[in-house]
Amino acid sequence: MLKGVLLLSLTIFFLYLAFRGNDFAKLFEVLKNANYLYALAGAFLGIVVGGIFRAMRWRYFLDPLKENIGMYNLFSSMMVGYMMNSILPRSGEVYRPVLLANKEKISRAAAFGTILAERVFDVLTMLTSFGICLFFFRDKLSSTFSQYNLEAISLYVSLAIVLFVGFILLMIFNLEKTEVLLEKITSKILPAKVHSKIHGIFVKLLNGFIFMRYPKYYFPILVLSVLTWVSYVMSTYMTLLAFDINLSFLDANLVLTMITFAMTVPLPANSAGVYHLFAVATLVNIYGVDKESAFGFATVSHLLGLLGLILLGSYYFLKENLSMKSVTSQTMNED
Q: Is residue 86 a contact partner of residue 181, using CB atoms and an 8 Å limit?
């Protein structure tokens, strides 16, 4: 209850910061004159096309657990998970692998491990995009965020991710030794029943990264990561055009990167508030876009994305006769 109130309060606070200073008569005109065909096309590219690429990539993460999982199960589980995320932040990260694991009869913990692997690749993709932005927009970014050393921050985060990936690779390629070492550590510090359970879950989680043992997966995962990001950039670009914000594809990439940073803050309704704040700040402070047009873009792009995920996720949720009670009980049950 307290957590919910805190998250809602933060959302309202960030929305206030984004709304503050708008000329609402002008904002209404901006929203009335927007080209919603472009905005809808942008939402379709981001949600459906980007979702298909993500589902295809997820299949490669899962392939060592079960080969050639069908796209329907992958895509539907993912959309239900995104719908859940929209309602309760990060809940879909648990529901999604559980739903797929139950359909495909694979380990739920191992399926959840693939979600962790996916998040690692998402962060690496975002950091690569930010590196490109730093190369092309160093002066603009430095002047806008002069109080922060963005290059140092991105370097340290990148190093942390690389070290994490290296550590996971070391464990994956020495799985038997890792299990023995883990057995020794957990048996010494945990009670027997707890130790056995924790040990089993951790090993299954590691199995979610087992694709790293197979170099044949590296290239398709890389290509699909790039295609997923490009579809998101194209979605951003199309929605900017809907508001006559004529930026380049590279500029749209910077806007998307800043919005993606914002969405790492787990707030309700797909990080509402902080999404708007970062989108408006980037467009106004870096590109000189008037605040009403920037806020119109942020409002419509966020709302269409949120509604699209909820509607598509709800469609699969109802089609497969799921219920919150059944999904929750499946999540709580052991493998």
A: no
- Residue 26 in any domain: the answer is yes
Biggest distance spanned by C-alpha atoms of the chain: 67
Q: How many domains does the chain have?
A: 1
Local structure of 191: helix, strand or coil = coil
Distance CA 121, CA 126 (A): 9
In single-letter form, the type of residue at position 191 comes to P
- pLDDT tens, residue by residue, 41-57: 999 999 999 999 999 99
Give the list of residues 6+ apart from residue 218 with CB closer than 8 angstroms, or none.
none
pTM to 2 decimal places: 0.85
Neighbours of 298 (CB within 10 A): 25
Evaluate whether residue 309 is within a structural domain.
yes
2 domain-assigned: no
67 phi/psi in degrees, rounded to 5:
-75, 145
What is the C-alpha R_g of the chain? 21
